[in-house]
């Protein structure tokens, strides 16, 4: 049995009449009704790997395993030469999330960290939405990723894919809401974030994508194809977004490498965490820019070529946030996360 | 045709088996599906009525009529001898709300107000929820109140009333979520709010009630009964909540008098805007405290006595908020709104 929310459609869907996808895709469904989904990203921003704060952070993360329905450990090259070690926790139960924030060692350490004396940076970005503002796609149902690692979730085959506008159509809310940002994106140059604890309020309908790549089972030709072809196309696309933030609506982009939580060895699994001013701007890039078309066509062609033997898996999950101030930065560099494009900057006291 | 959201029930309902309400009641339904409901309270806090800032505020309010689906003008006795003049705007379209915030004279005046030089206080409290965190009750369907003044809403008879726990049962989300606050309510004594622009982030599952009284059509015996009996019972109840904030979970309580928007004359219409740490604490007071039982029994008895000729109408609308930082105070006195019980205080820069 599965539960999903649908609205009687008021706005037209984007699916072309009679559309048949070129490649099979799957999407996440929940076994039980849920009113709020939460992805909780909590990170330490280090001057370098192996900074003494890394071990402290890892110990806090290990001691905070009770509560989240799924956790991951990720590493990213941070801004201004920093390294970010990220604890990602998923919850389908918002009360369990609040209890974890209130009681667990990692979030309580973050809340008590003194920004004035901290020797490293730290940040906490909480994405929480009603399921009507959430959509997913997976190229292969045999593996679990992101929210799909929570118990009580399944991957179902779908046909709402393979056309531009399909991601929008997969948001239940898109049937009744244009998911449209109001106002412009302005880059701040006045962010004095060192030694301070700052909050950012995102603007209404900020879109956040976690787009994943998994090639652990890949061998031989497929491994070469991923590492030499698809990965470089992906990085070219990401470079374009980072270099043209205002044109593309990009607010923040991080390339995350999944770590084995025991050995801390990097896995053959990456994901891009991107914040966009609006879903429309993310769609515009996906529909029209050659850097995305290169990624998209490569993925479709690879699936057609290798079929079920395809051993590189791509997927994403996207949320469209209502206004939220759940982005907090302690002693971070000024270009961290949403700080450079903060519509509203808030000093926590 | 009407639309509502329901979830397959996971948590038990509170309705006793075979329950039949003693008095008929109505609840709000929406004609069309909606993903976010918004009540936008924007106020000026004056040292006294007829302060020169009052006229400026009223002119801004009159110039901001385009956008909201319903507006009201309200006055309240504010804290520390102030007077609060409040513009209340309702929206069932969140994009229309964002456009209004971005373009309309009143909210843009508020956003640009310089806290350091302002001669009056001002505040802005925005309540925005998915309809699954919203419930209403009306003693009479012949009048419209609150969200019920938006086009595309209707009052429907119901039987989810007349027992303790009925309000909770009316929240669609209560079928799957205990709507439970985590953590304690702590009174701050360190709020230095004069000359500053501060934001408050509410804690998860803060409950906000607007509970209304309307006796414009009341004459003779019913008018006397309202003004001499029910009103004093109501005020006794409100005094109890204000005097015992921590015991009752009361974060803020304002008694609002509705004004005729043209003449500014007070109407025979009041409402109480109350913020509570949790729905459970509001329920506890309603179920067990003699000050609420006196109000409740009086209303039931009056309806039984006068039947359809009953000319005093009572109603309420309640929302349970996920965490939200949409509470902003400019140069207000420190006991305004959520400031004294702010879990997190944020300085806007």
Automatic annotation (TrEMBL), chains A, B:
Residues 1-23 are annotated as: Disordered. Transmembrane segments: none annotated. The keyword Heme applies. Its cofactor is heme b. Residues 11-23 have a biased composition (Basic and acidic residues). Belongs to the heme-containing dehydratase family. This is Phenylacetaldoxime dehydratase family protein. The lineage of its organism: Bacteria, Bacillati, Actinomycetota, Actinomycetes, Pseudonocardiales.
């Amino acid at each position: 049995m599965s539960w999903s929310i649908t609205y009687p459609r008021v706005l037209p869907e984007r699916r072309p009449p009679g559309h048949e996808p070129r490649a099979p895709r799957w999407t996440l469904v929940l076994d039980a009704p849920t009113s709020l989904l939460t992805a909780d990203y909590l990170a330490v921003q280090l001057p370098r790997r192996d900074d003494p704060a890394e071990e402290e952070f890892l110990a806090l993360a290990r001691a905070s395993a009770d509560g989240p329905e799924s956790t991951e450990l990720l590493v990213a090259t941070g801004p201004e030469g920093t390294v970010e070690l990220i604890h990602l926790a998923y919850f389908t139960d918002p009360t369990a999330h609040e209890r974890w924030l209130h009681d667990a060692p990692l979030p309580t350490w973050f809340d008590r960290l003194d920004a004035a004396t901290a020797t490293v940076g730290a940040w906490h970005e909480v994405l929480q939405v009603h399921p009507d503002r959430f959509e997913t796609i997976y190229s292969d149902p045999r593996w679990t990723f992101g929210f799909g690692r929570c118990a009580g979730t399944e991957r179902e085959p779908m046909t709402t894919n393979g056309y531009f506008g399909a991601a929008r159509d997969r948001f239940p809310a898109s049937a009744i809401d244009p998911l449209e940002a109001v106002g412009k994106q302005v880059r701040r140059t006045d962010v004095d974030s060192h030694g301070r604890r700052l909050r950012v309020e995102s603007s209404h309908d900020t879109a956040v994508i976690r787009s994943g790549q998994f090639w652990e089972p890949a061998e031989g030709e497929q491994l070469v194809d991923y590492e030499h072809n698809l990965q470089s196309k992906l990085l070219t696309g990401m470079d374009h977004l980072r270099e043209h933030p205002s044109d593309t609506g990009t607010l923040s982009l991080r390339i995350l490498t999944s770590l084995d939580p025991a050995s801390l060895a990097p896995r053959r699994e990456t994901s891009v965490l991107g914040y966009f001013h609006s879903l429309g701007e993310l769609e515009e890039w996906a529909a029209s820019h050659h850097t995305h078309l290169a990624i998209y066509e490569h993925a479709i062609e690879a699936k057609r070529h290798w079929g079920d033997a395809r051993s590189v898996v791509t997927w994403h999950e996207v949320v469209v946030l209502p206004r939220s101030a759940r982005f907090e930065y302690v002693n971070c560099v000024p270009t961290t996360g949403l700080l450079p494009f903060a519509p509203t900057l808030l000093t926590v006291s």
